[in-house]
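Intended use. Records like the one below are meant for learning the mapping from a protein sequence to its folded structure. Do not use them to infer anything beyond what is encoded.
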Amino acid sequence: MKDIISKLNKAFENRIRLGIMSILVVNDRVDFNTLKALLDTTDGNLASHLKTLEDKDLIEIKKQFIARKPRTSYIVTAYGRQLFKQHIEALESLINNK
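Structure written out for the chain above:
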């Protein structure tokens, strides 16, 4: 059991960061406002968690202009996808008591 717990990644312990990664893993890219709405959080809270994930190279920020309006979207990195998969596998092992 202790071995399984040690495989959980602290970067994903928070509900918002776990939600961000869950959303990004199943979508090519997601914009800030969509993440905010899906996670029911504030701008500042979301921005803080996105920055944490970006600093750990788990996500990338893509900025572009659409009809002269800035649009910020996020994608999961290959490294982020790998670590998140390992985290989910550890959770599944814990749940299944393996």
